[in-house]
Design a protein that fits this description.
With about 220 residues, the protein is α+β, with helices and mostly antiparallel strands. Helix content is about 50%, strand content about 15%. The chain has helices spanning about 1-30, 65-85, 90-115, 180-195, 200-205, 205-215; strands at about 35-40, 45-50, 145-150, 155, 170, 175. The strands form 2 sheets. It has a 4-stranded antiparallel β-sheet with strand order 1-2-3-6.
Length: about 220
């Protein structure tokens, strides 16, 4: 029952994060022009942009390679999560892995099908749903939708400073999506709280270590 519950937790996290991520992206893509922004606060904007690359808008790898690589990686993490559930590893570890899976799947969906089902977003027109296969890009070449922009600190460097004097500085400048946030939270929590489980040897012996941590005692036998 306990193992089954951990499996259900993982499925629930992946399903919920993926659903929320896609609902946000579809709303943004079908209601906003590329480059359009909505001010929520001075430090928070919904700013619609798209990218061909990795998290937070980075673009330095071939699109087809990146999409294929994402699929391979997420399959591997799904396998690790399955093994973690089977070996009764900590629930927190499974939550971290599930967040990473959900975020990766969210961006894979964009690359896999958005180019097939949407017209292209531009600075003058909002994208619309189109018949399958008549969209703006082939399968695996779709652009990832980003929208969260948090310019928490913004100022101009003093003019007397060498190299950067007079330049405008923004922290935090990357624009990202809900899937990126899930991946980042999962990885950070994994590294901080569960780094000992990252080695394959620990993963293989996870059940025994978990039992020791919880102070479980061997069952008594009766004569």
């Amino acid at each position: 029952m306990r193992l089954f519950s951990k499996g259900k937790i993982s499925i629930a996290i992946v399903t919920t994060v993926l659903l929320v991520d896609q609902l946000i992206k579809i709303w943004v893509k079908t209601n906003m022009r590329r480059g359009e922004s909505i001010r929520i606060a001075d430090w928070f904007y919904i700013y619609f942009t798209e990218n061909n690359g990795m998290a937070f808008g980075m673009e330095f790898i071939n699109k087809l390679f990146l999409s294929s690589f994402r699929i391979v990686v997420v399959c591997f993490i799904i396998y690790l999560t399955y093994k973690a559930v089977r070996r009764n590893l900590p629930t927190g570890l499974i939550v971290c892995l599930s967040l990473i899976i959900a975020g990766a799947l969210g961006n894979i969906v964009d690359s896999l099908i958005y180019g097939q089902i949407f017209s292209e977003s531009n600075f003058s027109e909002v994208a619309t749903l189109v018949p399958w296969g008549s969209g703006y890009a082939p399968m695996l070449y779709g652009k990832v939708v980003d929208m969260f922009y948090f310019p928490l600190v913004e100022f101009n460097w003093p003019g007397w400073m060498p190299f950067i004097g007079g330049e405008h500085f923004i922290f935090f400048s990357p624009i990202f999506n809900f899937a990126d946030a899930a991946i980042s939270c999962g990885i950070i929590a994994l590294l901080i709280f569960y780094n000992k489980y990252l080695s394959s040897n620990t993963l293989q012996t996870g059940v025994e270590e978990e039992s020791k941590e919880q102070g479980e005692q061997p069952h008594e036998t009766t004569n």
